[in-house]
Amino acid sequence: MPSPESTLLQSWHHNAGAWIEAVRTGALESRVQVTDQAILLAIMSRQPGRVLDLGCGEGWLLRALTDRGIEAVGVDGDATLVAAARAAGAAHVHVARYEALADTQVDVGRDYDVICANFALLHQDIIPLLAAMGTLLAPGGALVIQTLHPWVAAAGDYQDGWREETFAGLPGHWQPMPWYMRTLSSWVNALDMAGFRLVGLQEPQHPQSAGPQSLLMVAELRGHTP
Hints:
About 35% of the residues lie in helices and about 25% in strands. It is built from eight helices and nine strands. It has helices spanning about 5-25, 30-45, 60-65, 80-85, 100, 125-135, 150-155, 185-195, and strands at about 50-55, 70-75, 95, 110-120, 135-145, 160-165, 175-180, 195-200, 215-220. Helix 4 (about 80-85) links the parallel strand 2 (about 70-75) and strand 3 (about 95). The radius of gyration is 16 Å and the shape is globular. The termini are far apart.
């Protein structure tokens, strides 16, 4: 039986076309209204000159950063998404699975002021990947992570574990996607074990929504003094 991690990757291969269409037509309402702006503002507040977008997808964030004069580099494990990002104008995008990045088998550059992961850390064992990303940060650099808010996503079952996203309500032909939910303390512990300390936490929310749309964390390598 395939592992959840392999099924997760396979689902992205299957869903790539539908995902590109959903992002570019604004079908993901929470992104349009709240979370796209939240991640962009969190990155821009660091005044970076150079950013790595981990799990960049079809490249919307790369384009937004480039438009603001920032050198933006992307990496994603799906070739279809990377091709779409390149075709839309993102010049520096790498195809690489997270395992290869964690094992430093792929050179995606270094000395980044910010490394961001926008709804892109969906697998269980993220600590080796985060630790590897720490080696690519410039002095004083930061890791910016936006993810599903665990309190909302838990749906009453607030504990670490695999869940399933069905993409219900979105147009297109989707394959259900497994993803690993972790509690807030689990996120903080994972960052700590990878050598980071949490320096900022936000819960982006639409004024008319009953709960937060996401969890947004900013972390720096331990030992860094501002």
